[in-house]
Design a protein that fits this description.
Length: 235
């Protein structure tokens, strides 16, 4: 899709959510939130700078430049930086031992989704591809205004049209591991933060940003595209 983000930083545009940005960047939203120190429910605003890589967030921290300060203030700044370094490396500060605990953010197991359903009834037009420029989901044929259904229980975390190449798009969060997306809709019938159940009608099929009426459906596991056919029931 044309909407992917490259680079180490990104400026938020109107209508975007952290989920839509993580989707475009191919990153897990939890990783993006930690990197930018944004806590749930991940509220962001237009003009906000979002770091997409570890090094960019470190390099862009607003540390005072000691060279531009008077001599007395330079000493204060250098002292504060030295104190911070001691804390970072677990050295004692004012008699207290500050230890840096290892991060426990690595999730070693996958959260299972109890039930998946097909998001639309039409014929399969295109399958998933692992190639770099390949199809990152599946395309399902249909007629305008055919029902588009939530593929599993979850919560709507994006509903809009700012992702170029996806048209009217819905992203549903199923748990901390899985997201699904429903693109090219004619009409969106849900709002962001709305809870949906598997099989609920969330949109009407259309051809927004597409050459024909169809549903483009994607599943992401921890930010990475996976083959939806591995999850959907055989038919």
């Amino acid at each position: 899709m044309k909407s992917s983000i490259r680079g180490s930083e990104y400026i938020v545009k109107k209508g975007e959510t952290l989920y839509s940005i993580s989707w475009r960047a191919g990153l897990d939203v939890n990783t993006l939130a930690r990197l930018n120190k944004i806590s749930a429910p991940y509220q962001i605003f237009p003009g906000q700078k979002i770091f997409l890589a570890k090094n960019s967030s470190k390099a862009s921290k607003n540390k005072p430049s000691s060279e531009s300060l008077p001599v007395k203030q330079q000493k204060v700044v250098k002292k504060a930086i030295a104190s911070n370094k001691k804390q970072e490396y677990g050295e004692s500060v004012r008699g207290q031992k500050i230890s840096k605990k290892p991060s426990s953010t690595n999730r070693s197991f996958s959260q299972k989704i109890r039930r998946w359903v097909w998001p639309a009834k039409g014929k399969l037009l295109a399958k998933f591809s692992n190639r770099k420029q390949g199809n990152k989901g599946i395309d399902i044929a249909g007629n305008r205004n055919d029902s588009v259904q939530a593929a599993a229980d979850g919560r709507v975390v994006y509903a809009g049209d700012v992702l170029r190449g996806y048209g009217q798009l819905i992203i549903v969060k199923h748990n901390d591991d899985y997201l699904s997306a429903y693109a090219h809709n004619d009409r969106i019938l849900v709002k962001e933060q709305q809870v949906v159940k598997a099989g609920d009608v969330i949109a009407k099929m259309g051809d927004t940003d597409a050459e024909r009426v169809m549903l483009h459906f994607e599943v992401r596991f921890r930010g990475k595209s996976v083959n939806p056919l591995k999850y959907l029931p055989r038919r």
